[in-house]
Amino acid sequence: MSSACSVPVIAIDGPSGSGKGTIARMMASELGFHFLDSGALYRILALAAQRRGIALDDEQALAAVSGELDIRFPADSASEQVLLDGEDVSRDIRSEEAGAGASRVAALPGVRQALLERQRAFRQPPGLVADGRDMGTVVFPDAGVKIFLTASSEERARRRYNQLKEKGLPADYDEILADIRARDERDSSRSVAPLKPARDAVVVDTTELDIEATAQRVREIIKNRLNP
Ligand code: C5P
Predict the structure, then answer these.
(1) What mean pLDDT do residues 94-101 have?
(2) Residue 74: pLDDT above 80?
(3) Distance between CA atoms of residues 48 and 54, nearest Å
(4) How far is the C-alpha of 154 from the C-alpha of 187, rounded, in Å?
(5) What contacts 109, CB < 8 A, 6 or more positions away?
(6) pLDDT digits (tens, 9 = 90+) for 35-56
(7) Could you give the CA distance from residue 203 to residue 205 in angstroms, rounded to a whole number?
(8) Widest CA span of the chain, in angstroms?
(9) Is 16 touching ligand 1 by the criterion CB < 6 Å?
(10) Ligand 1: which atom is nearest the Cα of residue 40?
(11) Shortest-distance atom of ligand 1 to CA 104
(12) In sequence order, what are the residues at sequence separation of 6 or more whose Cβ sits closer than 8 angstroms to the Cβ of residue 157?
């Protein structure tokens, strides 16, 4: 067993809008753990491809670029800041377009493979909270805590709509709902690392829960699993 394997990992997976990003950041900050926003890696890759004129289905070129990108997340896990080649791209990668592009590049096995070690390198003492779709199934299958957050597609679209409005970004509910459904379908049906709960994950449906109620439930799960 390599020493990295003794570093605890809390894997929080689920579809977009399930609240996993907010909850994962909150847990990382409360526990003083590192934080991996794996979706941001796919979003950054889609953005970089767009800027470099690489087609979103050019698997070979995208896999090569994934290895070269200079991506940095500032140390503070509560911050949503992301740097690409030193430039703050936090806002650009949160657009619907970058999200849709991310879901396309994420369906390519060569891209997922190229990003695998990069994600595992975030596992550093005292621990890691990893947010994504395949944290508990593929990237950290030995994670001590696996949580799968979900919610109805309508509720997730409503949350996403409010989030975009708050950030002053353009938002259309029907478009967001259609996009969420298309993305769920693509993420769940792809051949590599499809979106599904790990066999040993605890599934939490957040449709009827607000962030604080979700956080409370997740804290209990973490407490029970980390100190059984
Ligand atoms: O979580 P976020 O919405 O930022 O992720 C953007 C897209 O990246 C997702 O729709 C999904 O297709 C992809 N993704 C993935 N595996 C992850 C994280 C994100 O396939 N671990």
Answers:
(1) 85
(2) no
(3) 8
(4) 17
(5) 59, 191, 192
(6) 999 999 999 999 999 999 999 9
(7) 7
(8) 50
(9) yes
(10) 4
(11) 12
(12) 17, 173, 176, 177, 180
Question: Which pLDDT does position 132 carry in this prediction?
Answer: 95
Look up residue 91 and give its amino acid: R
The runs of H, that is alpha helices, within the chain are 20-31, 38-52, 59-68, 96-105, 109-120, 153-166, 173-189, 211-226
> How far, CA to CA in Å, does 80 sit from each of 37, 93, 155?
9, 11, 23
The answer, as to whether pTM is greater than 0.85, is yes
Query: pLDDT tens digits, residue range 125-181?
Result: 999 999 999 999 999 999 999 999 999 999 999 998 998 899 898 889 999 999 899
- Could you give the 3-state DSSP secondary structure of residue 113? helix
What is the C-alpha to C-alpha distance for residues 206 and 18, in angstroms, rounded to an integer? 7
Which domains, ranges and CATH numbers included, belong to the chain? 4-226 (3.40.50.300)
160 lines ligand 1 (CB under 6 A): no
Ligand 1 atom nearest to 134, measured from its CA: 21
Tell me the residue type at 105. V
